[in-house]
Amino acid sequence: xxxxxxxxxxxxxxxxxxxxxxxxxxxxxxxxxxxxxxxxxxxxxxxxxxxxxxxxxxxxxxxxxxxxxxxxxxxxxxxxxxxxxxxxxxxxxxxxxxxxxxxxxxxxxxxxxxxxxxxxxxxxxxxxxxxxxxxxxxxxxxxxxxxxxxxxxxxxxxxxxxxxxxxxxxxxxxxxxxxxxxxxxxxxxxxxxxxxxxxx
Length: 200
Hints:
Layout: H1 3-17, H2 23-34, E1 38-43, E2 52-57, H3 61-69, H4 76-84, E3 94-95, H5 102-107, H6 109-118, E4 122-129, E5 135-142, H7 151-174, H8 182-199
């Protein structure tokens, strides 16, 4: 994995915060980074109210609706990742089998009623704290028959977490900026973006 490719994904995160590209494009870039088949991430409060879905690449709309109305309550992996937020410390990225043992996962309602249909056998991801902006569950997936995500791929997602956190915090703050301040907001983001590349 070249540094240039990792920097390009990082750049897309800040471009999305500035409104230059969609968050779906960010999801696609993340999926490409670790060869995931699908990706989803959202922002909202830890209790799951007021969730805003930012990306559900290669996950159909009907699956999103099913998840929101029923299967979220059976998603042991996301619930356990969210529980780890209570312990504090640096954000962690987990792969399949670590938060939910495979035998438990394969017996569960989430896999048998939902995940199998939509190719969610293997996952790499986290639940990231964003301060006032809430939390961000992030999951990248591969279907049954694929290889699980490995440590190198986990480290790539870990490298992206500080940038995802900062970009989503900026997005949250900028949402409160009046429309009249749009030009100043874009200039500020252009400056922030240039600092990212200088420090890389």
